[in-house]
Specification:
This protein is 97% helix and 0% strand. With 113 residues, the protein is mainly alpha-helical. It has one domain (1-83). The chain is rod-shaped, with a radius of gyration of 48 Å.
Length: 113
C-alpha cells in the first residue's frame, strides 16, 4: 500500500470516528434535553399542586377562624343563658320561699283564731 493510500485511509477512519462521536454527542444532548423537559413538566405540575394546596390551606384557616369565632360566640351565649337561668331560678326560689312563709304564717294565724 502506498503512503497516500495509507494517509487517505487514516483520514477516512478519523472522519468516521469524528462523525460517530458527533452522532453520539447529538443523541446524548437530545436525551438530556428530553429528561430536562420531563423534570420541568414534573416541577410545573408540583408547582400547580402546591398552589392548589396553599389555597386549600388558606380556606381551611379561614373556616377554622370563622368556626372558632362561632364556637366562642356559642359558648358565650350558652354561658349567658346559664347565668340568666340561674338568676331566674334564684328569683323563683326566693318568691316561693317568701310565699311559703306568708302561707305558713297565714295558716298559723287561722289556726290561732
Amino acid at each position: 500500500m502506498e503512503a497516500w493510500q495509507l494517509a487517505v485511509l487514516i483520514v477516512v477512519i478519523i472522519i468516521a470516528f469524528w462523525m460517530l462521536s458527533r452522532q453520539a454527542v447529538r443523541q446524548t444532548k437530545e436525551s438530556i434535553a428530553a429528561q430536562f423537559r420531563t423534570v420541568t413538566e414534573h416541577l410545573n405540575t408540583q408547582d400547580t399542586e402546591l398552589e392548589t394546596l396553599k389555597g386549600n390551606v388558606q380556606k381551611v384557616e379561614l373556616d377554622l377562624a370563622r368556626n372558632y369565632v362561632r364556637r366562642n360566640d356559642h359558648v358565650r351565649d350558652v354561658a349567658s343563658l346559664k347565668a340568666q337561668f340561674s338568676a331566674l331560678a334564684t328569683a323563683v326560689e326566693r318568691k316561693l320561699d317568701e310565699h311559703s312563709r306568708v302561707t305558713i304564717m297565714t295558716i298559723k294565724r287561722e289556726m290561732r283564731k
